[in-house]
Model the fold of this input.
Amino acid sequence: MIPEKMLEVLKNEGVVAIVTQGQEVHVVNTWNSYIKITEEGTLLIPAGSMNKTEENIKKKDKVLVTIGSREVEGFHSMGTGFLIKGTGEFSYEGEDYDIMKESFPWMRAVLRIKPSEIKQTL
Amino acid sequence: MIPEKMLEVLKNEGVVAIVTQGQEVHVVNTWNSYIKITEEGTLLIPAGSMNKTEENIKKKDKVLVTIGSREVEGFHSMGTGFLIKGTGEFSYEGEDYDIMKESFPWMRAVLRIKPSEIKQTL
Done:
């Protein structure tokens, strides 16, 4: 289940961090506005390069994602963030790929992240 | 040396990701506006809780940081980001602590990150 507040965050622009760990811990960024969420609650992220992220996921599919926005109210004041734990995989075809490719013609693959835990951190 | 464009990014609000790896890879966030940079180019970040980050750094001081802003021009279009590799340490007193404590009275420590590499990623 994707929390309502997280959907609200995604409506505001911001920097997303995607952390993977294969041989070496790596972090790559995307924008809030690039993320689409499927009916099943899978995060779809367009991959332009993200080569190191892809290599890492092949070795270990565990992914950490953070997103946030200063424009959405958090626990204490304006500004909230989410830490998403999940598993990732790159797809090069299929329905999710086609949907994303339409919005992001430059992408070479779609990174699909299935959240196992979503935690509001702020 | 801190790139001019990174200083420009820090003038815009956004979400910062701080990745550490001790026993378990962890990511925590802060805001662009919370970061101060010393004359020597050390990043100063106020730590409210960040307990897991602190534990991790005690075991391994390697830190990855990403910052970005959609409002600053990148390589291809609007929006740029930086990946900073460096080493981190928590300080509970001293000049850097005092400077930060004045702006962030809620902080319990200052996280000092010395960059070894700063790369513009977008």
About this structure: Chain B touches chain A at residues 13-17, 19, 21, 25-29, 31, 64, 66-70, 79, 81, 83, 121-122 (CB under 8 Å). Helices of chain B lie at 4-10, 51-59, 95-103. The radius of gyration of chain B is 14 Å. The first strand of chain B starts at residue 15 and ends at 21.
